[in-house]
Specification:
The structure holds 2 protein chains of 2 kinds. By secondary structure, chain A is mainly α. In chain A, 47% of the residues lie in helices and 5% in strands. Chain A contains 24 helices and 8 strands. A 5-stranded parallel sheet of chain A has the order 1-3-2-4-5. In chain A, strand 4 (326-329), helix 16 and strand 5 (373-375) form a beta-alpha-beta unit. The longest helix of chain A has 19 residues, at 218-236. Chain A is globular and about 75 Å long. Chain B is mostly helical. Chain B has 2 domains: 3-305, Fumarate Reductase Cytochrome B subunit; 310-336, no CATH class. Chain B is built from 14 helices and 2 strands, in the order H-H-H-H-E-E-H-H-H-H-H-H-H-H-H-H. Chain B has helices at 3-25, 29-57, 88-101, 103-106, 126-144, 155-164, 176-194, 196-201, 204-226, 231-242, 249-254, 257-272, 280-283, 314-327, and strands spanning 109-113, 119-123. In chain B, strand 1 and strand 2 form a beta hairpin. In chain B, helix 1 (3-25) packs parallel to helix 9 (204-226) and helix 9 (204-226) runs antiparallel to helix 12. Chain B is elongated and about 100 Å long. In chain B, 35% of the residues are buried. Chains A and B meet through helix 3, helix 4, helix 6, helix 7 and helix 9 of A and helix 1, helix 2, strand 1, helix 8 and helix 9 of B.
């Protein structure tokens, strides 16, 4: 962390032209501290019987690989080419038009040409050509082929962990080539050799054993939510104690454990607790939390398809055990890509659940009829639309908001309007960022896909530059002081990013805004918001 | 000079030389005018179909469209039916616009850091324009060649030709498409060479088809406007090929080497096509991020190779934490 360059230093040395020209295949890899995450703890790898668990250091020459590692990679790639049409097509049809080249936030923030999506893919494609295409076998390097060497493997590791699987490039590709897919499968191959990072491997292990990434055990999970309940009671005078592992509840609620653990996600979590309490008191809706399915996120997704499935399985399993009707999922990015595009396929069909209907509004969530899981923003937007919430948006009057679309809900789901609708109804001052930086064009926080560790801070701050730059612009133009989001990794990562680039904005979850505005039945007059800061209009009174 | 474009350039020069020497010096006109074109067409079709089948047979385990607009969720929220299609009709519309108008490429922006430190992403349409010009004029040129293979020429081709040659300066009439095609392909070459990042990512296999196509267009233009190869004779030969009536050797001698160079370039392009990046022509139709509906939560997608995995069950979890759970007042399934 101490080596993190100052923001103007990082910014002024940005150069997006490949230095020296030359051939990228001849550019030696330079693994730099600050740009990578620590390697996986062997103990964490053993939980899920991951291969080649050992201590190793990427700065050392020897990565302690199995003797037949090249064969493992070759066979692994062959197997995946047979199982994924995406991989096969994406290996074959890129024309290197360069449309994707300046679309990657890591390229924009680092200027490293191997962070151009096309080159990131070429790292893998070059080996594919060498091993699996006739042209590559005959013409070798002239055909863009190169054999798998230790240098190449190191390059894969370094750059597949400098991609946050955000899919921005895939929107601009004329053939829809998705670097996320290439990174996902590239990381899967690396995992065959035990080349994971600890920021992914340990949460995966925790999630498998204790139900959530942070390894919060059941009694502690309950304790933590009870702390929030106490805080909320101090602020509102209302006890919002939730249900835990309750059989026969109407709905199971699952959210990333990050929101239980650290600010400002905790305030979003308080928002959920208040919302569900409100619905229980007003309409009798019975929502339960689970300590077993206590993780919405899925760092298995950043490891392999199989690991993703193993971690995701407990959502449906717990819903079945508790006998709930359907599931609501909290605010999270990659979690929602997994739920929206993978869960039903991997672990469904969830015939033990009912097609989701909001009993309060009568709305059938037809878009979730098969997966039976509804996004909290969809749920809340529906409630607001039907006038079912009592809201006082003036409690958010001190906030001048903009909204950060998270990568996965935008480009792997299409959840764009719901959060905006909720924000506009619980707060008055909302301004969208420039069109090329939001919605499907949104930029990553720079820390997605398991890269939100502390040791790769330079990578994160560089990768987050485009987002921070747009927020700063909003701050200068509209005095925006708060960046709203619907993602737990955003809430963990964006505060550092916002302060590093001096954007003048802090970070807030959409349901924290809801919690502030929501008028609970029987609440006392609030003096502070959920963060314990004076409510707008209250500051003067406090001074008097 | 960089080998990545030097080698392909020399390769294309060599191909021209082979066709010229072969047809003119060694008199292998039958080879260059008949045998190789036939072989190339066979390789093209067999190869193309083989590649498509190979892709089409590989499974699509997950439905992974890249969504570029609001999904269909709540009735009162406006869905983007094309960029976030929920139905097959939406997917067809998305694919149609993608294939016909290069919609994704049209989004292209150029990142620029302004002096005030603000990063801007301005629309960049030239790649899209050049790509459209290139592909459409290539198509027109291809269709215009129907007159060499069809007799009588169906009306639509006549009309196309009339439109294409509306600018008339002396004889023969000028086909606009050839020159726009040449300009577009030259632009694509020059941008590959002069935009530093694009040059950096380019491979020999990116330059080779460009040079080859430049060769085809140039040899065609030379044949028509400069060497003025007799169209009727050329047509007799090509029409003979389509109807499997082999042209007489005397006829083959009447057209000059430029005809054989042109034919040879086209043959090489056809034979090269299925094994190259040019297969994006077929691949785009199968791209899973574009040709699938964003209806994942409504309609279950089946993974043909889905297999059971080991999970940590609730029972195991409760076994691990039962005492702590009971102590914390959490419900448990088994009391001990």
């Amino acid at each position: 962390m101490s080596d993190l360059p100052k923001n103007d230093e990082l910014f002024s040395k940005l150069d997006h032209r490949p230095s020296g020209g030359g051939d990228w295949m001849d550019t030696p890899i330079d693994i730099r501290p600050g740009m990578y995450c620590y390697t996986a703890n062997p103990k964490s790898m053993e939980t899920l019987s991951a291969p080649n668990a050992r201590k190793w250091n990427p700065m050392e020459e020897d990565w302690l690989l199995p003797d037949n590692w090249q064969e493992i990679i070759h066979e692994g790639l062959k197997d995946r080419l047979e199982r994924f049409r995406s991989l096969k097509i994406f290996m074959d049809i890129c024309v290197r038009c360069g449309a994707c080249s300046d679309k990657c936030h890591y390229f924009i923030g680092t200027g490293d040409p191997k962070n151009m999506p096309v080159l990131r893919a070429e790292l893998l494609r070059s080996v594919y050509r060498n091993d699996f295409t006739t042209a590559g076998k005959i013409f070798g390097r002239v055909a863009g082929a190169r054999p798998m060497t230790l240098e190449v493997l190191k390059e894969w590791w370094y750059y597949f962990f400098q991609c946050s699987e955000c899919r921005r490039c895939s929107i601009f590709c004329p053939y829809g080539i998705d670097t996320a897919e290439i990174t996902i499968l590239g990381r899967e191959l690396l995992n065959l050799l035990g080349l994971n990072i600890d920021w992914i491997a340990t949460p995966v292990s925790n999630c498998y054993q204790t139900g959530n990434h942070l390894g919060i055990q059941p009694h502690a999970f309950k304790d933590m939510l009870e702390f929030f309940v106490e805080d909320i009671e101090d602020i509102t005078g209302v006890n919002v104690m939730p249900n835990f592992n309750k059989k026969g509840a109407d709905i199971l609620f699952i959210t990333p454990s990050g929101d239980v653990f650290a600010d400002p996600g905790t305030y979003t979590c308080m928002g959920y607790l208040m919302l569900f309490h409100f619905l229980k008191e007003k309409y009798g809706l019975d929502v339960t939390w689970s300590t077993y399915a206590s993780e919405g996120g899925n760092f298995g997704f950043f490891t392999s398809h199989e690991t993703m499935k193993r971690l995701n399985a407990k959502m449906y399993a717990e819903a079945k055990r508790l006998g709930v009707k359907w599931i609501i999922g909290g605010e999270c990015g990659h979690m929602w890509r997994v739920i929206h595009q993978y869960m039903d396929t991997m672990n469904g069909p969830a015939d033990h659940l009912e097609a989701p209907v909001n009993p309060i509004t009568g709305t059938k969530f037809e878009n979730a009829a098969s997966t039976k899981m509804v996004h909290i923003a969809e749920f809340t937007a529906d409630l607001i639309k039907h006038g079912k919430l009592d809201l006082d948006p003036s409690r958010n009057d001190n906030l001048r908001l903009t909204f950060h679309d998270s990568c996965n809900p935008s480009r792997g789901m299409g959840l764009l309007e719901e959060p905006r609708y909720v924000i506009r109804n619980v707060a008055k001052h909302f301004y969208d960022m420039p069109a090329n930086t939001i919605r499907e064009n949104t930029f990553c926080c720079g820390s997605g896909s398991g890269l939100n560790a502390g040791e790769d801070m330079e990578l994160r701050m560089a990768g987050g530059l485009p987002r921070a730059n747009a927020v700063k612009h909003m701050n200068q133009k509209y005095d925006v002081n708060m960046l709203a989001c619907v993602c737990a990794i955003d809430r963990a990562a964006l505060p550092d990013l916002m302060s590093y680039w001096d954007t003048g904005a802090d970070v807030i979850g959409v349901h924290e805004l809801v919690g502030n505005a929501l008028i609970l039945p029987g609440e006392k007059e609030r003096e502070t918001d959920l963060r314990g800061e004076d409510l707008p209009g209250r500051e003067e009174e406090a001074d008097e | 000079m960089n080998g990545k474009y030097l080698y392909p350039f020399l390769a294309v020069c060599l191909l021209a030389l082979i066709a010229w020497v072969g047809s003119d010096v060694f008199g292998l006109r039958l080879l260059f005018g008949v045998i190789l074109p036939y072989a190339a067409v066979v390789v093209f079709f067999v190869g193309f179909v083989k590649r498509m089948l190979d892709w089409a047979r590989s499974p699509v385990p997950f439905r992974i469209p890249s969504t570029a607009g609001q999904a269909k969720t709540l009735d009162w929220l406006p869905q983007n039916k094309i960029d976030s299609p929920f139905t097959t009709a939406g997917v067809v519309a998305r694919m149609f616009l993608e294939v016909v108008t290069f919609r994704s490429l049209f989004r292209n922006t150029k990142m620029k850091i302004n002096p005030d430190g603000r990063i801007a992403y301005d629309l960049e349409v030239f790649l899209w324009l050049a790509a459209l010009a290139f592909h459409y004029t290539f198509l027109v040129v291809l269709l215009r060649h129907a007159r060499f293979f069809l007799d009588p020429l169906p009306l639509p081709f006549e009309i196309l030709e009339t439109i294409d040659t509306f600018v008339q300066i002396g004889q023969p009439t000028i086909s606009l498409s050839s020159f726009v095609l040449l300009a577009a392909v030259l632009y694509l070459f020059i941008r590959r060479l002069y935009i530093a990042n694009v040059r950096y990512i380019s491979l020999a296999s990116d330059y080779f088809p460009l040079f080859l196509i430049i060769g085809i267009v140039l040899s065609g233009i030379l044949m028509r406007y400069f060497f003025k190869v007799d169209v009727a004779t050329a047509k007799e030969i090509t029409y003979g090929l389509t109807t499997f009536q082999l042209p007489a050797l005397a006829k083959l001698k009447e057209v000059g080497a430029i005809f054989y160079i042109h034919m040879f370039f086209v043959s090489v392009l056809l034979a090269y096509f299925p094994w190259s990046k040019l297969m994006h022509l077929g691949g785009i139709f199968l791209s899973p991020t574009r040709n699938l509906a964003n209806n994942n939560r409504a309609v279950r997608h089946v993974n043909p190779w889905n297999y059971p995995v080991k999970v940590h069950t609730y029972e195991e979890y409760e076994d691990d934490f039962r005492e702590k759970m009971i102590e914390a007042g959490l419900p448990v399934d088994k009391k001990e």
